[in-house]
Specification:
641 residues, alpha+beta
Length: 641
């Protein structure tokens, strides 16, 4: 049954809704904003409704069966206004971006594209993984806590679009709420998809996934609460999650499937559309250095995850469906999250200090970017011929460039190299400056006679130089005025960053001073195990050392360090790496050997132990597998990245 009334169910077993991508028709209107595009993934260009024309979308059988919204039980304008959010059309939005939709008769309808474009998502795994190391470290440290570190797709846009993108998402949600209310529907959902291959924690075939019935993913999409910005949003989170496999059952309509994603609800109606027209996705650019924010995931039952299995007919796809809370529920979520975060931060002072340092570094980087831009502008002005003359006219006189014909006429070089003359120009103006300059020329014996008819040309030349200096002085002063408040803000941000860094160091020392038990297996190493102390992450702790120290309790990390070097000294295979008499004497006392002179920095002369996962980010203090032997110079280099 094609066309239809836009709401009446057809007689097939699929229970599909007539018209539109899953049988539900468009509204027959032209969206006035259809031509607008902000390239954010939220604008009308990416809504999947015929480039902004909401009516006449194609049905699952490929025919133009979409209803124009002119009839039916909901008929007319009311049905038309609701149609945009009756289907979660995920074809033309980036993976991970949410689309709002409301259920129709208890059924959520979605249209998906299971193909992964060659561009831009061929590096989707890199996109997910290419966040700051801090993100991964914190995620591991807080795996069982309410605080998580996530890469938000909303925040992956360039700085100038972040606020606007968030605003568009909220507008989409507000509009969906209004349209749902018109047809007496209260339940709204956010639906997102991601390529399966890029989210798995380990490489595994679909046959094996199908056999297991579930799979461990390294990331999922879910609602998170950003307590800093007071908002809830959908984000890709680094949260290993066991996701079940759901078989997408074929219906009587081509490429339309039924899938039980949410327990207790009717199966979702999923339309697969991998048409070539979706190639415009290839024009989308993915930011491979996403902004990383600090968020708290919402309640676990807030979102339903599934791997949709189309039994080989289409590529499998990960889908996430989150029920949108009411405004009152969202407010309560925010308050509860704030409370949980404060409790957690109080219990984890080192990680809390690390978060504060991270925020301070971001704040400084943001202000420093503006500062550098304005400082560069000022430097350019000061380095111009006019700027150099204003700074030191004697060494850098400003010369009026004359043609041969002009010089024949004036018979003299026209230049300003007199600071007193420049002061008159800037303080008193052009006329006093020209008068003083003429008096200076007139006081030179024979100068006027030599100039003759060239006097007018000389006067015009000095006037031009004067105008250039006045303009340059005005621009320089303006640049200095604009720079001053930014410099003050930068100094404050720099001091704040320094303060937070000192706090991290203080809390880190406390963590090092706490007693602990040595853990870890160590690494099989060769005789030259110290040859990598100035490369990559450094040299690992040998297995021989780990076996001797594992399970022993140490009063502080310093005592573990002493034990490591003591064991090196009494293990022949390892001790032969220590050549000099001074170094052999050092390790015999449980002290680190000296690094080569070129690898020493200031008072830091000996080899050091580096925590791969930094303590401030939740790295284990006493796990020898988290330690590397490095030179002072290389240690500084590692931490500067």
């Amino acid at each position: 049954m094609s066309g239809g009334d836009g709401i009446g169910h057809n007689s097939s077993s699929s229970g599909g809704i007539n018209g539109g991508p899953t049988g539900f028709g468009g509204d027959g209107r032209n969206n006035g904003n259809a031509a607008y595009s902000d390239h954010s993934g939220w604008s009308s260009e990416n809504n999947g409704w015929s480039n902004g024309n909401w009516g006449g979308s194609s049905g699952p059988d490929g025919s133009n069966s979409g209803n124009s919204g002119g009839s039916g039980r909901w008929g007319g304008k009311q049905a038309a206004n609701s149609s945009r959010y009756a289907v979660a059309d995920l074809r033309l939005v980036k993976p991970g971006y949410p689309v709002a939709a409301f259920s129709i008769g208890g059924t959520i309808n979605a249209t998906v594209c299971t193909k992964v474009p060659d561009n831009p998502f061929n590096n989707w795994g890199d996109y997910i993984d290419n966040v700051k190391p801090y993100a991964a470290h914190l995620a591991r440290a807080t795996r069982n806590t309410p605080v998580g570190k996530v890469a938000s797709l909303l925040m992956s846009l360039e700085d100038g679009r972040k606020e606007y993108a968030a605003k568009l998402q909220q507008q989409m949600l507000d509009e969906a709420r209004k349209e749902a209310a018109k047809v007496n529907v209260s339940d709204l959902f956010h639906v997102t998809t991601l390529p399966v291959a890029e989210i798995l924690a380990a490489s595994i075939s679909m046959e094996r996934i199908r056999e297991l019935g579930k799979v461990l993913t390294k990331v999922v999409t879910q609602p998170v609460v950003d307590t800093k910005n007071q908002q809830r949003q959908i984000a890709i989170t680094r949260q290993p999650t066991e996701v079940r496999v759901v078989k997408a059952e074929k219906t009587s309509k081509p490429n339309v499937y039924s899938a039980q994603v949410i327990a207790g609800m009717k199966p979702m109606q999923i339309t697969v559309d991998n048409s070539s027209s979706l190639s415009q996705l290839n024009k989308t650019q993915v930011n491979t250095a996403p902004e990383v924010g600090i968020f708290s995931p919402t309640a676990a039952d807030d979102t339903h995850h599934a791997i949709l299995d189309f039994d080989g007919k289409h590529d499998p796809i990960y889908i996430s469906v989150s029920k949108v809370p009411t405004e009152a529920e969202e407010k309560a979520q925010l308050e509860a999250t704030k409370k949980r975060e404060q409790e957690w931060l109080a219990e984890n002072p080192l990680l809390a200090a690390g978060l504060e340092l991270d925020e301070a570094q971001k704040e400084f980087a943001s202000i420093d970017s503006v500062y550098q831009e304005k400082q560069n502008r000022l430097n350019q002005l000061l380095d111009s011929p006019e700027g150099r003359t204003l700074t030191n006219p004697v060494e850098n006189p400003l010369v009026f460039q004359q043609t041969k014909e002009q010089f024949t006429f004036t018979k003299t070089e026209i230049k300003i190299s007199d600071k007193a003359l420049i002061d008159v120009l800037l303080k008193e103006g052009m006329k006093p400056y020209l008068k003083k300059n003429w008096m200076k020329i007139n006081s030179t014996p024979g100068a006027v006679a030599t100039l003759g008819a060239g006097i007018v040309g000389v006067s015009m030349g000095y006037e031009q130089l004067g105008k250039r200096l006045i303009e340059a002085d005005k621009n320089i002063n303006k640049a200095k005025q604009e720079l001053a408040p930014v410099m003050e803000d930068r100094n404050k941000a720099e001091n704040k960053k320094k303060e937070k860094k000192e706090k991290v160091e203080k809390e880190s020392k406390k963590a090092r001073d706490k007693p602990g038990i040595a853990t870890g297996d160590g690494t099989d190493v060769g005789e030259k195990w110290l040859e990598n102390v100035s490369k990559q992450l450094g040299s690992p702790i040998p297995k021989e050392i780990a076996d001797k120290l594992r399970g022993k309790k140490f009063s502080s990390f310093d005592k573990l360090r002493e034990a490591i070097w003591t064991e090196v000294g009494i293990t022949p295979k390892l001790a032969q790496n220590v050549k000099t008499k001074a170094n052999k004497k050092a390790i015999a006392k449980g002290r680190a050997p000296f690094a080569r002179t070129k690898d020493q920095v200031g008072g830091r002369k000996k080899l050091e132990l580096h925590h791969v996962d930094e303590i401030q980010h939740g790295g284990e203090v006493y796990n020898v597998d988290n330690l590397r032997v490095v030179t002072p110079k290389h240690h500084i280099k590692i931490h500067s990245k």
